[in-house]
Amino acid sequence: MRITQCVLIVAALGAIAGCTGDRNAAVVTELLNRAKSKLAPDRRTVVFDVAGDLRGKALTLKGEVHSAALRDQLLRIVKEEGYEPVDSLTVLPQQEIGDRTIGIVSQSVANLRTKPAHSAEMGTQALMGTPVRILKRDDGWLYVQTPDEYLCWTDAEIVPMNAEEYEAWMARPKVIVTTEVGFVRSARDPASRPVSDMVAGALFALKRDAGAYYEVEYPDGRTGFLLKEQAKLFAAWLDGAKDTPESIVATAHRFFGVPYLWGGTSSKGMDCSGFTKTVYFLNGVLLPRDASQQALVGQPVSQDDGMAAVKAGDLLFFGSRPREGRSERITHVAISLGGKRFIHTGGGGGVGTNSLDSADPDYARNRERGFLHVRRIIGAGEEVGVRRLTSVPYYKTHER
User: Fold this and answer.
1) Is 152 assigned a catalytic role?
2) Which residue among the candidates 66, 152, 253, 344 is catalytic per the annotation?
3) Residues whose CB is less than 8 angstroms from the CB of residue 7 and which lie 6 or more positions away in sequence, other chains included
4) Is residue 272 annotated as a catalytic residue, yes or no?
5) Residue 253: active-site member
6) Which one, 88, 233, 242, 325, has the greatest CB density within 10 A?
7) All domains in the chain, ordered by first residue
8) Of 101, 69, 71, nearest in space to 88 by CA
């Protein structure tokens, strides 16, 4: 056989192998995309970082998945598609984490970022006393999941605990901060050295009643004194926390002028969904983190009669409407004050009021142009995604 013929045959075989490889890659990509859409539709709340290598009917799966349950579901889907799964997946939490897979935030506000770097975008924040699930570690950074299921990286002070230590912490009575900002002091004296700052919604363990103060303990063992006028016993506070139109509006106005902070969810600074989340949290409701997630919970409010059906406390959503080749996009959320007036934060002066009424001095033309939907949280239940703190295990099971 001539050399030229040999070269042509080898090239042809290579082309066939290449086509087969391309087809296999396309099959795997399509299968994994469908599985991801079903099992992990929101990357902000579920880890599904999976690739596959198909050889005949054997599909080797590599990468990371959120849990053993998710891995088992994925393997089942692969089998149902007619392939034999080969499991090379890493199931979180990482083995290196050991049994200390729960952490408690031990500083006033923990900044959580989208990547393990200070230069990375801040995705959200977690307050003192917030429990997080620890999923993995990377050079001093922890990849954690908050009670609202948000996933981010942090190098903040998080106290890792095993199940026994966590249960012991849970069993202790707690104190919740009710003032917007303040300090825990080293002595029962407002002029004494601060132990740390504090923000509304922060949780401490109660050590003892100390007259005009609560002596409190941090997750890391530090202690300090917190004025009773700035806090409440958590059990009593939770029993009285009610999301009514009046309480939501009153709480929202407490943060008037607080500066806008991308990723912020504390009274030091908030973004739009961080503001709505904080206001509702302080009235006993745990909302999802982002505006696009909040737009999926609660009851839809009809706009057939303009804004006549909108009540104070409803959430107003803004963004861009769907058009050819592009789906609807939620980019902003606000709290209704009733009718066309609302309170929100969107930069500039921070938390403030605006209106969709062109005759109102607070009229915001850009918001009217981007107005999309209204959702009602007040009175809604878990069947439409509204979670009250009394049904969230961490808050529900504190000693009461």
Assistant:
1) no
2) 344
3) none
4) yes
5) no
6) 233
7) 20-92 (3.30.1340), 96-169 (2.30.30.40), 172-240 (2.30.30.40), 245-391 (3.90.1720.10)
8) 71
